[in-house]
Amino acid sequence: MSLGFEKYQGTGNDFVVIDDRQLIFPESNLPLVQKICNRKFGVGSDGLMLVRNHPEADFEMVFFNPDGSRSLCGNGSRCAVHFSRKLGMAAEIGTFTTTDGVHNYKVDPTTGIIAIGMHDVKKHSYAKGYRFIHTGSPHLIVNVDDIDHVDVLHEGVDLRRAAEFEQINGTNVNFVSEIGSGSFRVRTYERGVEAETLSCGTGVTAAAIAMALDGRATDQAEFHTQGGVLQVRFKKAGNNFTDIWLVGPVQHVFSGIFYA
Predict the structure, then answer these.
(1) 172-175-178-183 Cα dihedral, nearest 10 degrees
(2) In this predicted model, what pLDDT tens digit does every residue of 43-88 receive, in sequence order?
(3) 14 Cβ contact list (under 8 Å, min separation 6)
(4) What number is the average pLDDT over the span 194-216?
(5) Which of 18, 48, 141, 200 is catalytic?
(6) Is 37 labeled as catalytic in the residue annotation?
(7) Residue 73 catalytic?
(8) Residue 114 in contact with residue 107, Cβ under 8 Å?
(9) Could you tell me which of 153, 121, 99, 133 has the C-alpha nearest to residue 203?
(10) Are 105 and 94 within 8 A, CB to CB?
């Protein structure tokens, strides 16, 4: 079995994207998903996406983490928009559906910057003494003074697997430090990848909301990840957040064929 694929990256978050409009990918074959995402025995990626037709939205995106689990992926969604435009399925403004429902998207035709609309956030809490926010995927936000000296792998995995998160199969963990007014650095330990990734879209969205709740951001925030810069824009009314947009660049890296 051979599978054509595209390799994409959004601020260093890299993905395998497959045109599955003919519904030929065996999505129940999780070992195959894991093998494709494996950096030694497969293509290697932070996730795998299937792009499909949808009767109401412009397209459907099915996302798998490298371990075969599913969740919303912010940067992956932005890459899927780019690929769907190449397939003639998406315009400059439209909608797509994925794990947690329907999302809007916008494409700047001049810069190529792609923004996706995130769902409203009205619930946030504390866990392990840190803010815990769900933005399609669960995220713990840890404020640190010197992000360069954080042991993301070891500190991240301890929090990711804490007993408080056992019922939701663990959480993502974001370490955040302020570098200027409304500007931050962030490093993320991602569940499903089980490692630090160069960027996480749902993570910076959760971090933006946490910074706004702490009075460190107003209606937008800029995040410098290990792989590039992302912006999050939003409207805040009390402790409720609406009109949330994740904004950043996307790059098509290469095309290939995987022999399963």
Answers:
(1) -40
(2) 999 999 999 999 999 999 999 999 999 999 999 999 999 999 999 9
(3) 7, 8, 44, 45, 46, 253
(4) 98
(5) 200
(6) no
(7) yes
(8) yes
(9) 133
(10) yes
Q: Among 16, 61, 73, 81, which one carries the catalytic annotation?
A: 73
CB 221 within 8 Å of CB 183: yes
Q: How far apart are CA 245 and CA 243, in angstroms?
A: 6
Cα–chain center distance at 180:
24
**89 vs 151: CA distance, rounded Å:** 42
Q: How many CB atoms lie within 10 A of CB 62?
A: 18
Model confidence, pTM: 0.97
**Kindly report the CA angle at 247 between 70 and 37, in degrees rounded to 5?**
35
